[in-house]
Amino acid sequence: MRRRDNGGQEQNFWISYADLMAGLLFVFILLVGAIVVKTVLMRSDLFAIRADLQAQKTALGLSEKALSEKKKRLREIQALLAASREANAHLSMELALLQSEAEGLRISVDDMNATLHERTTALALTREEMEQLKALLLETETQRATLQSEAERLTSELETAEKQHTEDTNLIKLRDDEMAQLEKALLLKSRAYQKVVEDLNLTRIKIKNLTGIKVKVVQHLKEELGDSISIDPKSGSLRFASNVLFNQGEATLKPEAKQELSRVLGHYIDALLSDKQMRRYIDRIIIEGHTNSDGSYLFNLELSQQRALAVMTFLYTQYPKNRQLFRQYLSASGRSFTEPVLGADGKEDKQASRRIEINFRIKNEEAVRELMNYLNAQGDGGA
Questions:
Q1: Which of 106, 171, 299, 321 gives the lowest tally of CB atoms within 10 Å of its CB?
Q2: pLDDT at 317
Q3: d(CA 255, CA 196)
Q4: What sign does the dihedral 335-336-339-344 (CA atoms) show?
Q5: Interatomic CA distance for residues 34 and 32, integer angstroms
Q6: Would you put residue 288 in left (φ > 0), alpha (ψ -120 to 50) or beta?
Q7: Per residue in 257-304, pLDDT tens?
Q8: pLDDT digits (tens, 9 = 90+) for 205-261
């Protein structure tokens, strides 16, 4: 009976353990989903910024085209106004001539009237002569009325031309105001665009200067460490194989590993933090624990975290005078098997994947990387 009870308890234990593993797997899936959604949203924001800059460039091009069309229309209106002014001047000259002719005819009629009066008084003209003179006078009056009508017509045309001239002048003034507003808006847009371009170029220069800091720190490490300690030539990271530091599946440092850490890691940390000039570039030094894919993710996550913490604990114990700097700059992180080392065949090298890596991060390195990618994308799109 006791054996049966023990068997039931063991079965219940494994069922509970399976439920716990399933719950942890579900939490991990939710975390992965949240990371994916955040990545998609960030990428969408970058695309929106790029589209907005492109729209501004297009709108600026359209404004310049509209301004060119309005300038062309203004030149046409100015040509028409000049022709209208010339026609007005011509009509004014004709009116003056007609008025002069009418005045001459009036004087002639007055002279003829005077002559007629003198002849009537002096000679006692015959009825036939009187009729001829009356006919002549009537013809003269008819010509005078015709000239007066023509003068009135020319005066009306001159007034119409002057009215059209005034309207054309007002239209040109209105066009000039519109052109001035468009030129002002175009100037503001051009200045704003130039400011954006200058800011982008200045940001690109600053970022290139910041990225050069990483190279400077790596070069400093190479000079300080010499050939006795091997670091990654690009990132400047330091790597220890886990089988050198820990036994399989354990997180306790081997006795012989402490000597290696004291010689290599101590010198590496000292090269980064003892120099104030270098230290002002450092944002964080991260002790990372990595495992291979044998076993579950959570088990390896806990194991890698414990191993990273063991290395950090060793540093605190070995170098108590530097604890203030360690608190400010050092951190420990377990990565499980999320970053495996791949062999030449593209498959996981399980032995090499079991490692401790020491990485340093330059201040604002993540922001610099994202901005550099964005600026490179903008440069490709603008070209």
A1: 321
A2: 93
A3: 60
A4: positive
A5: 5
A6: beta
A7: 998 898 899 899 988 998 888 888 899 999 999 999 999 999 999 999
A8: 666 555 678 888 888 888 888 877 889 888 899 999 988 899 989 999 998 899 889
Tokens representing residue 303 in the block: 């194991």
Q: Residue 285: what pLDDT?
A: 94
Asked if 315 contacts 326 with a C-beta cutoff of 8 angstroms, the reply is yes
Average pLDDT score over residue span 157-186: 79
Q: How far from 75 is each of 64, 82, 165, CA to CA, in Å?
A: 17, 11, 16
